[in-house]
Amino acid sequence: MSSPTTEAAAPAPAGVLVPHRWLILVFIGTAQLMVVLDATIVNIALPTAQADLHFSNADRQWVITAYALAFGSLLLLGGRLADLFGRKNAFLVGLVGFALASALGGSADSFTVLIVARVIQGVFSALLAPAALSLLIVTFTDPAERGKAIGIFGAVAGSGASVGLLLGGFLTENFSWRWTMYINILFAAVAFVGGLVLLHRTARSRTHLDIPGTLLASVGLFCLVYGFANAVTHSWSSVNSWGFLAVSAVLLAAFGLWLTKTAHPLLPPRILIDRNRGGAFVALLVLGSGLYGELLFLTYFLQQILQLSPVRTGFAFLPMNVCIMLTAMTGASFFLPRFGPKLVVSAGMLLCLGGALWLTMLDTHSGYAADVLPALVLTGLGMGLVFATGMSQATAGVAGQDAGVAGAMVNTMQQVGGSLGPALLNTVVVSSTTAYLAAHRSTPPSVEAAAGVHGYTTAFAWAAAVFGIGLVLAGLLFRRKDTAA
Fold this sequence. Notes:
485 residues; Growth Hormone, Chain: A; 17 helices
């Protein structure tokens, strides 16, 4: 029988303020930014890397998918390892591993080496991301301060994807695609030094690692992300899509059953049964599903229809980032205590819904300022509210020994949503574009641009439907003006 977690592994008691906590937040936020932006920073660099390393168009997707597969499938394990072996240890090891993998990727002389580096990056991200969020939970013990800190952290997480696009374009155009990898070494070094000096080492939990649960969850999540990734590049009818999704459903169902049978589950059911916490996980999943697909095809619209360069496309998303920061930093600390998670998350989903509906009005004559910018503002304001409130409610009231796995669930929901959204909306874009071209066969060549826009706007309408589902679920799942201590 295992002994309980030692007191040192739990958060400091309320009222006992951790020294240098705001400076600690800077280093934790730096690590989180590195993890999030690395999902997109290589996107713009891919054509240059492909020409340099001579790999095919069919192989190109694996530079992105390899990272997502390793990251998404190992998050729950990474979160539990942070709880078992110490969050500071997990944080520092994750940073070192990620930096070394980035150095390997930047110096890659073949496609194989680059893919191996991306897989290793994903592995250490799965250890690093839950550790960062759990460190935030145990560092900020005052509820008001924690709300502000989670808001800042949510702003970083919410804006990381578009920051990655901007930074990736700048580095590729002015230096080399390899610097989209090397830049991570700088991020990791800053966060490592700060973490090593300022973070307090927590005692290791003596709870056993749930090996069967780890295998079921990791393989199940791998099949889930892999199935969605294949749906993007192939079709839902391909056995590589539905087959892996079916296997994932079986394994994750078995994992859920196993959680109720074992004494030391990888994901303790007590984390999931709180109504607000469950609602937060669902909200983050829905937001990721609608958002990542929407932003992907908006990026295509900006580059293919408005003819913006990669760097200008990155700058085009900056207003959205500003809005994310505005509502994320006020959502958890100001709006949440006054209105409760039901109203705040519902308002965020409604704003995202409005932004997606605005984008459905785009056509080949649309411009950025009048037709795209208002949608980005609405979406950014909504994202900040949902991200900050979701993170706050997903981690509120979590015991110290469960902080890592709770943080892992936050990242898992975002990762699964980020895989589902592009897969679903890609199918919508392809089918609607094909139908449009079939209906306008005798029209001039310019119809191809119109068909592309028709596909994008159809996808935006589906994204709006996803946010509408999120709005309904937020109203059903969250309690009104009820935030866990």
